[in-house]
Structure formats: structure tokens, C-alpha cells
What we know:
The chain has seven helices and ten strands. It has about 230 residues and is of the alpha+beta class. Helix 5 (about 135-150) crosses helix 6.
Amino acid sequence: MSLFETTSIQCPACDTVTDFQAAGSVNADRRPDLREAILDNTFQNVICPSCNEALRLEPVVNYLDVELGLWLAAYPPRQIGDYLTLENEVQALFDESYGTASSASAQDVGAALVPRLTFGWPAMREKLFLRQQGLDDVVIEMLKLDLLRRLPEAPLRAGVELRVTDVTDAALRFVWIETASEDILQAFECNKALLVEITDNQDAWAEVRRGLTQGLFVDMQKMYLGAGRNAA
Ligand SMILES: [Zn+2]
């Protein structure tokens, strides 16, 4: 089932408070139109009825996609600093829904699901897109860390992220994007050979993989957000 809740939003342009329908959960197998809306960045876009300002509701949504094998909990960008606490909560929610604490039939479904935690729409859209393209999101995060070393002009700062937006036969298309506003700061293409190099060299990346996959927030930002999970 896909669930929507009425939520009151104050327009940042004209201060009018309006009720909108915010998605609490999305079942993409029953509502493939919602999967498509997430992929084409129209999901939860609304218009202020008072001044016609285009707004986007923040994600606070659980996403289930058995067809693509993805279960995802998406939170607003401003909560990224709480990722360790949220990883624990979201893992518990997954365990109750489709994991070790769920019924045998739910666990059958869960066995084919990759659980993830994301912050903001660009990250959610990317996880879904990569899954659809058959690309391993862990290797993509490794590639991003590799690219940071090669890109001296990278606009790396809090609130700005590197996301894959498209893929061709030869290349991956990346953007540096401001998470909250979704403003694109830079775009570039990366030859797929770099991805193959990492995929073929997993031993050298084993420690990075361990760091990225410790918890459901699989994102290179966790490598530099605070002390991480192993802090004393
Ligand atoms: Zn307005």
C-alpha cells in the first residue's frame, strides 16, 4: 500500500500555510507511476496555491520495490548528522518488516531486498536509478571517493553531494548537487573504465567497502561525517 498524510507547509515565498498530501510510504510494485515520478524528479513537487511558487515536500518516506529489489527509508537532508541513530532505527524497522524479526513469508520477500537509508531526494533517486541500471551502489560510492582525488576543483562542502544521474554505454554522468535545493553546481562524465577498474580490484577496496556497508547509510559522506560507528 502507498500511504499519504496531510501535512501543512509554509510557503517560503509568501508565507501562506497550505495542506499537501505527503507520501509516508510508497509501494512501487503497486504504484509504478510513483517509481517513475521519483526517477524523473517530479515526485512530491507541489505548487503554492497562493503565489504559484514551486515547492518540493521533504522526504520522510519508506519505499518498497520488490521488482528492483530495493527497500529504502528516506529522510530530509537536515537529518544527515543523525545518521548513526537513524541507521539503528531503520535497521530495526527493516528487521521487523522483512528481516530477522518478521514472519517467514515476509523474510522470503526480504531476502531479495537491499535495505538502504538516504537523506534528500537526489540520494533516493540515485539509489533507485542505480538499482534499475543493475549497478552496485557500493562500488559507485567507491568510485566517488576515487574521483575526489582526481577532481581538484570539486565543490565539496556540507550540503553538497556527488550523485550519478545517468548512464550511457561508455560513461556515467555525475552532478555536484546542493541536496536541499537540488541546484546543480557542476556536471561531468566519467568513463566507465574507472568503474570496471574498481570492480576488478575489490581486494584493494575491501576496507573502504567495510566502512561504507557498516549500517544502511551507504554513502561516501559517512567517511567524513564525524567519528563514525567505531568511535570509542
Ligand atoms: Zn506562496
